[in-house]
Design goal:
Length: about 280
């Protein structure tokens, strides 16, 4: 649930935002929903950012840069064990036509080879100073005008391009809006042991659920639900060999939502409970 939200817009698109929300969620689609790139600085709490190929955890005072793409924001175990159950972020959003309009040079360069989808940004003193200035503007919007907005967006792009060692600001800006290319099989294998639903998998693969199921069955000669379930259980048998690993941790590591779900699926497949298997 959103507790506080302050937004600065430019041409009816949000460009800077401060957001405070509770951690009473499990997983949510990224909240920047167009073809924009996003910069986020976490002022409190933590979250996981799931890309098609990776899961990156961000904690207080860390910053994220995400290119356009399909992602999920997920809660963390750390948040579940804290008294303060809020996440606070300051964000900036970059839109292709808006950003390209800031620069006189033609931004058609596509040689910048920093092939990322989501990265952690080095919060150096210059970046921290910039974030403080945006926080101030969000709290004092009466002084904000178009010149300040465009100047601040340009400033952030320049700082980011330096932190990512881009050859030029032009190459860096162009790279933000070239979607990262994913391999279907890699997306499946890199998320096998999550608790993603079939619909979630389809979103990460940027296709409908029906198309996802068809492509999956063609590739693996098995339905997604059955293939994924078997792979999780196979991993569980490997982890059960470690005597110091609890059933709860194994269930979590294999992507089962609850321990009862894990116990039920394991016993149905192997004829004995995880505990019996571990002892046997």
């Amino acid at each position: 649930m959103v507790i506080e939200q302050k937004t600065i817009t430019h041409h009816n698109k949000r460009v800077f935002e401060k957001l405070v929300m509770t951690t009473d969620f499990k997983r949510a689609p990224k909240y920047f929903a167009e073809n924009e790139a996003c910069f986020l600085f976490l002022t409190n709490g933590s979250f996981q950012f799931r890309t098609p190929n990776n899961v990156v955890t961000y904690s207080k005072n860390e910053a994220m840069l995400a290119k356009c793409g399909n992602y999920f924001i997920e809660n963390t175990r750390e948040n579940q064990n804290k008294v303060d159950n809020t996440i606070s972020v300051i964000g900036a959003f970059f839109y292709p036509e808006m950003v390209k309009g800031f620069f006189e040079k033609d931004l058609s360069i596509k040689h910048f080879q920093n092939k990322f989808d989501v990265i952690k940004v080095n919060v150096e003193p210059l970046m921290k100073s910039f974030i403080d200035s945006i926080d101030f503007l969000l709290d004092n919007q009466s002084i904000v005008d178009e010149n300040i907005i465009t100047t601040k967006l340009k400033e952030l792009l320049l700082i980011l391009s330096k932190s990512e060692n881009a050859a030029s600001i032009y190459e860096f800006v162009e790279s933000l809006f070239i979607p990262h290319q994913y391999n279907f099989n890699e997306i499946i294998q890199n998320n096998l042991y999550s608790d993603l639903s079939i619909d979630d998998f389809a979103k990460l693969c940027n296709c409908s659920t029906a198309t996802f199921k068809r492509k999956f069955t063609e590739l693996y000669q098995e339905s997604p639900a059955k293939y994924i379930a078997i792979k999780k259980l196979e991993k569980a048998t490997q982890l059960l060999q470690f005597k110091n690993k609890s059933i709860a941790d194994i269930a979590y590591d294999c992507g089962f939502e609850t321990i009862p779900n894990f116990n039920k699926a394991f016993k149905k497949h192997f004829g004995k409970s995880p505990t019996e298997y571990k002892l046997g």
